[in-house]
Amino acid sequence: MASTRSTTSPLLWVPTGYFTMALGYIMLTSVTAIMFKNLGMDNGTAASYSSMLILAYTIKPLFAPFVEMYRTKKFFVLCAQALIALGFAGAAMAMALPDFVVVLMPLLWLMSFIGATQDIACDGVYVTSLDSRSQSLYCGIQSLSWNIGPIVASGFLVYLTGRLHTDWFHHDAKVFGPEWMDAWRIVFFIVAGLTVLMAVWHAHFMPDGARAANTPTSVAGAWHILADSFVTFFQKRDVWRMVAFAFLFRLSIGFLEKIGPFFMVDAHAKGGLGLSNELLGIIYGTYGLAAVLLGSLLGGFFVAKRGLKSTLFLLCCAVNIPNATFLAMSIYLPDSLFAIGAGVVIEKFFFGFGSVGFMIYLMQQLAPGKYTTTHYAFGTGLMGLCAMVTGTLSGYLQEAMGYINYFVFVMVATIPSFLACWFAPFHHAEGKDEAGAAASVEHAA
């Protein structure tokens, strides 16, 4: 790797870089579902529209080699952040149009590709500007910084929409419809402003990044590397069992991810819990995400102590079985915020605990080889594909089944996860981590 190490402290750009990546990603692929729901869309439409925006992040390995070819990685980061800021501001203005969805969806879809490009470039700056020791040293800060993004987006900003809607614009929080646009437009402008500030900050403090030794110098070279990475990936021993694992391990979570928040805010008459956006932001976007972080930390210690092969099935149980908390809540419809919060925290904690095994498996068993980073990205891409497919279907299935039957279906959907986990092959010694893959674990989770 051709490397020109930066003299700027990584503390000046690693936290802000990964926070900005996460903020855009969560706003586009997760928070938009709540926005569409607030605006009066049915669950099927809201979930499918939001899930479509995952596509760019799923296929980003396909255009990563082309990002490497031109200018510097910092240049792509700054351009992407400037365009994302313009995109969120444009989305806020588009929502004032009569048929705003016709303009809004293509704009958000384009922003998702720009956001994926930002991810590629920012990861590239991290990997090429820091030596191996520094990458390990700042990995925890990188992870923490990325996870602050969901807390701000799914927690604070969703909470803020509720307060703006009721306290500032004096609308009824229990009625979904066009009146919610006022609050969401302000939030989109806030995200645009934050992203501009981050771009200005990174213009001063982010290093340029260096070119990797195998960086393609032409489009033909980039296509050759991409094609070779595909060929070598499918030459791996038991590759289809590993593909099944990567796609199916979080299948039930994919069906739960969009519908969980919908269940929280839907009225009792529709089988939901009738929470406000403020409570959703606090319970789901703050306490729930804090539980994910704690679970991930403890899950990492658990795997490090006992090994992945002996614990993988147990980790699969941790991811899938606690989904039953949503089934229980849909049956009993608790009024107690403590009970609702406990149900969410339990599911999120064990999801974080078990998901560590998924990421470590990709690093240690699927990724090793000639194109470690690319093959790791293929694995996370399969995870993203699962999230996109299940998210697109989830709303329509829930509407057809109702919440109770749908959450029963979610529990049935855990069976493929258990089978894929049970038959997942282990062909590499545990603990043989690959540096390139490690750079992106936390925000792939």
Question: Which range best describes the helical content: under 10%, 10-25%, 25-40%, 40-55%, 55-70% or over 70%?
Answer: over 70%
Major sheet attributes: none
CATH topology of the largest domain: Growth Hormone, Chain: A
Strand content: under 5%
CATH superfamily of the largest domain: MFS general substrate transporter like domains
| Poorly predicted sequence stretches spanning 5 or more consecutive residues | 432-442
Radius of gyration of CA atoms, rounded to a whole number:
21 Å
Give the overall shape, derived from the CA principal axes: globular
| DSSP strand tally | 0
Distance between termini?
27 Å
> What is the number of independent domains?
2
Please work out how many helical segments DSSP would assign.
21
Architecture of the largest domain, CATH level 2? Up-down Bundle
CATH class of the largest domain: Mainly Alpha
Instruction: Note the run of SSEs as H and E.
Output: HHHHHHHHHHHHHHHHHHHHH
Mean pLDDT: 88
* Structural class assignment: mainly alpha
Question: Could you provide a short overview of the structure?
Answer:
This protein has 445 residues and is mainly alpha-helical. The protein folds into two domains: 1-215, MFS general substrate transporter like domains (Growth Hormone, Chain: A), CATH 1.20.1250; 236-445, Up-down Bundle (Growth Hormone, Chain: A), CATH 1.20.1250.20. It has helices at 14-38, 43-52, 55-58, 60-69, 73-94, 100-129, 132-168, 181-205, 219-233, 239-248, 251-257, 259-265, 277-306, 312-320, 324-332, 337-366, 372-401, 403-412, 414-422, 435-438, 441-444.
